[in-house]
Amino acid sequence: MIFEVGGKRDFDSVGASAGDNHSGKESELGSGFQNAQEVVAKLLSHNIRVSAMSPTHIRLVTHLDVTPEMIQRTVEVLKGL
Questions:
Q1: Which region holds residue 19: left if phi is over 0, alpha if psi is between -120 and 50, else beta?
Q2: Given this model, what pLDDT does residue 21 score?
Q3: Other beta carbons less than 10 A from residue 50's beta carbon
Q4: Where are the alpha helices (DSSP H) in 1-81?
Q5: Which pLDDT tens digit goes with each residue over 47-81?
Q6: What average pLDDT score do residues 25-45 get?
Q7: 80 alpha-carbon distance from chain centroid
Q8: What is the mean pLDDT of the chain?
Q9: Mean pLDDT over residues 15-38, rounded?
């Protein structure tokens, strides 16, 4: 999932590479952040690691050891941002 900080764009035209399950959808985070690095730092303070793809976008991925409960917790933290 890709999140844009302080704005919204359509990523449906972005092609996914083989094996990539990117949904082509984007969600918007609140405008209280100046850039993606601030969001990365805030999520890290909740022990959630994400990647800044650009000054305005972060990317979240899961791994085999991530449980449904961990994902739900991440969703709740993101809702609180």
A1: left
A2: 44
A3: 19
A4: 36-44, 68-79
A5: 999 999 998 888 888 889 999 999 999 989 988 88
A6: 81
A7: 14
A8: 75
A9: 60
> How many CB atoms are closer than 10 A to CB 51?
11
Cβ–Cβ under 8 Å, residues 39 and 31: no
Give percent above pLDDT 90 in the chain: 30
* Residue whose entry in the numeric block shows the structure tokens 């990317």: 59
Cα 12 from chain centroid? 16
Closest residue by Cα to residue 4 from 58, 79, 48: 58
- CA 53 to CA 25: how far, in whole Å? 15
Q: How many Å apart are CA 19 and CA 56, to the nearest integer? A: 25
Is the Cβ–Cβ distance between 53 and 26 less than 8 Å?
A: no
